[in-house]
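Recap from last week: sequence in, structure out.
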Amino acid sequence: MFQQDKTIESDNWVEQAEQYWSKSDKSKKAAKNTLSCIEKALQLNPLNYKAWADKGFILKQLGEFENALLCLDRALLLNNNFISPLYNKGVLLGLMGKFNEALIYYDRVLKIEPDHQLATRDKQVLLQIINKKK
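Predicted structure tokens:
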């Protein structure tokens, strides 16, 4: 019962972080406050894949790309079909100039959710960039 309580409390911290971020001004201060909630969630439940995905997203926002990748990878280890870290890893790899790797993640998103508008859009943008470089 104790572990179940920790899991619920961890999920509540993730929900609080997501709500805070969605209403925030997306500033560095807001990102750090959001990260604080996510860290609390992970202390309670280190297997919370949503918390790892959110941490990766926020670290990406802060420009901490390598750490963000590690968090997104952790989320995917815990749930390899979770759309959020798949999509955000594609975005992150694209920002890092790893276009072919990014396409792999967009394709994974689209295999699970064929109508994912952001992955469709971003994949097209990357294909245009790749074709211009040829």
